[in-house]
Specification:
The chain has 417 residues and is mainly alpha-helical. The protein is built from 19 helices and no strands. This is MFS transporter.
Length: 417
Amino acid sequence: MDSSLKNNGKVSQKRAWYIVLISSLMGCSISSAFPQFSMTVTNVAQTTGLAESFLLTSDTVKSAAIVAAMLCSGFMYKKLGARITFIIALICTVLPQFLLPFVSSPAIFMFLKIMQGFASVIFPVFLLIIMDVISERQSGLATAIFNGIFYSGGGVGGTIAGFFIAKSGWISSYFALGIIELIIGLVWLFTVKDTASGQQEEETLNEKTSSLHLLKMPVVWLLIVAFISTTFVIQAITVDMPLFSEWLGYDEMETGKINTAVTIGLLAACLISGKISDMVAIRMSNKGKARILVMAVGPIIIILSSLMLILLDLTSFGLFYVTALLFSFGGSWGLGTFYSILPEIFDDDKLPIVTGLAGGAGDMGMPAAPLLVGVIFGARGMWHLGWAVCIAIAVLSLLACILLLGNKKIRTPQKQA
């Protein structure tokens, strides 16, 4: 075990930022599979004989698997440690990339999509490692950079797919992404070691009691609702924006450019919100509420950009580009703040469990987004109703943020020495 990862005091910040970067790149490659798949749905259907509606539904099932993976991530981390959990995630993310283009069995295809979703079990583990090694004053920026690069796969995947589809055919996009995932995964595996906090022989009764107690706390559920618009909109961007672009009449190269706007919005929002979150937290005595206040900006931007998607003439490429960028910016704003809120509210003993529980439950928006926006409304040409759902979800998140700001029980915990 690498002793440099045992606590903040013993790790150099240069190495800590390396861990942030390599973990972020691995996450980016994992999330890239969503838009890459969306851009090849028609090709996969023609090759495998599977219906397009089934293929779109498989992404919804994959999203549900992501939620399940996130919910059990904290327990796996404490039981197995980061290294074994990562190996499981790496297998789940790489193997389907090389098999999906050739699978005609609905059951096997769905199983591979579930595997892809379960790869997200590593997401909270990455965050826990980052929060363990990075200095407290930079925690917001570090988690923002991680989340920004991780979820920028929603744009990067589409850009990669657009390039390879145009140059060497749609199947090559699967192989290219799979190779990228494998290379980054092996680099992570051989350069980042387990943290001491992630290794436990057994889960104690107190830990089980703590988990049940957390699920009964209104603050936890308000945090989940506050975060759900972020995951919902990001998934709508990742899965449905390429489909919406095609519906508007844009080709693969133009859709790839739109995905570039998505990536820019994602990264910019995370970096800006994370930095502002750190700045506001320094200036306020209640650091948890300071970060929640910053997070509340995200739903407001989602509402405004969703109205633009509904009301504007998006056959103008420039206007569509700006709107997609703003929609991505608003949807991604919460990624720069949410996970830095948790250490400000919960003590070190509860943090691994609550990170998985709150993050996983907050990710309930992920399976709902492609189902509502893409399958139910988008497939029928009623995209305006899909974007209206985004507005409704954002309103709920904004109300949750307001209730959290008024909650007198939110205060900074006493950290263990």
